[in-house]
Write a structure and sequence with these properties.
By secondary structure, the chain is of the alpha/beta class. About 35% of the residues lie in helices and about 20% in strands. The strands form two sheets. Strands 2-1-3-5-6-4 form a six-stranded mixed sheet, with helices on both faces. Bound molecules: NADP nicotinamide-adenine-dinucleotide phosphate.
Length: about 280
């Protein structure tokens, strides 16, 4: 039941109709018996800043997760930001304080590492170099999380080399940029390959990189999860590599967001199964 005390939170993106975040958060709210609701907002691209500024009045929305294409703008709109959000250059969480201040955080990176813990137990991000494919917002979050977790070298491969080079300039000397054409050499000796490109979004076979050049015990992760087993992950599995899927990352980044928004840890219900059902899988 919606009451006068119902806490409102949500997710902001454009488009947003596909988002699974409301499924996850509302299931946790119901199971925890919290008087709250989590909805989706899709402001016009030029309306995002006004949407955020409007929350400075206090007493309306508790906070929001932020997704494509607003993560960089979300960081810029905040008064204060966590170290991991600043390092990533992007925020996926804004909390609107009652005094009008706006706090930014980025839980994508912890979600990524928690997904590895869940689906590739024993993986140690500090044990060796990791290759990240892509140089957009998701890749930045991944590189920042890996560096904070002690990864000695992150090899960033991107279709547009200059964007990988910019990322390396921003994130420091442990980042080695290259183009996707350099994948075979860059995969030698890695402990993991993480696909953070949007290549799979158009459908089709996705990114064609020589995964066979990775060591046999390397873990292969795809942030894209529609379908759950992407062609990229299917190729990795066929090669006998352990894999981590993007849905697990989504679930794992949602947990710390829920805690920040509703002040309680999410209850132990199987939200992954609910998300799969919502995806029709
Ligand atoms: P973004 O900022 O728009 O970056 C897109 C990246 O993909 C760029 O590096 C771009 O390369 C590359 N790219 C796009 N199409 C490509 C193609 N056909 N071949 C090779 N590279 C291509 O997007 P983002 O926010 O980083 O998101 C990237 C992906 O991660 C999306 O699929 C998103 O759904 C997913 N994601 C998942 C989670 C999760 O929780 N599972 C969280 C965040 C993001 P150029 O620089 O050359 O254009």
């Amino acid at each position: 039941m919606i009451t006068a005390r119902t806490v409102v939170a949500g997710v902001v993106g454009q488009p947003i109709g596909h988002s699974l975040s409301p499924v996850l958060h509302n299931a946790w709210l119901a199971a925890a018996g919290i008087d709250g609701v989590y909805v989706a907002f899709a402001p016009r691209a030029e309306g995002f800043a006004a949407f955020v500024e409007g929350q400075r009045g206090g007493g309306a929305i508790r906070g929001v997760n932020v997704t494509v294409p607003f993560k960089e703008a979300a960081l810029a709109a905040a008064d204060e930001a966590s170290a991991r959000a600043r390092l990533a250059g992007a925020a996926n969480l804004l909390v609107f304080e009652t005094d009008g201040r706006i706090r930014a955080d980025n839980t994508d990176g912890v979600g990524l590492l928690a997904a590895f813990d869940e689906q590739a137990p024993g993986f140690d991000p500090a044990a060796g170099p990791v290759a990240v494919l892509g140089a957009g917002g998701a890749a930045r979050g991944a590189v920042a999380a890996l560096l904070l977790a002690g990864t000695p070298e992150v090899r960033v491969l991107n279709r547009t080399l200059s964007k990988a080079q910019d990322l390396a300039i921003d994130l420091g000397r442990k980042v080695a940029p290259s183009s996707l054409a350099g994948a075979r050499g860059a995969f030698a000796g890695v402990t993991a390959v993480i696909n953070a490109t949007a290549a799979g979004m158009a459908g089709g076979p996705g990114l064609d990189v020589p995964l066979e050049a990775t060591p046999r015990d390397a873990v292969v992760m795809d942030m894209f999860y529609k379908p759950l087993e992407t062609p990229f992950l299917a190729r990795a599995k066929a090669l006998g590599r352990r894999t981590v899927d993007g849905l697990e990352m989504l679930v794992q980044q949602a947990a710390p967001s829920f805690e920040a928004l509703f002040g309680a840890q999410p209850p132990g219900i199987d939200v992954r199964a609910l998300a799969l059902k919502a995806m029709g899988q």
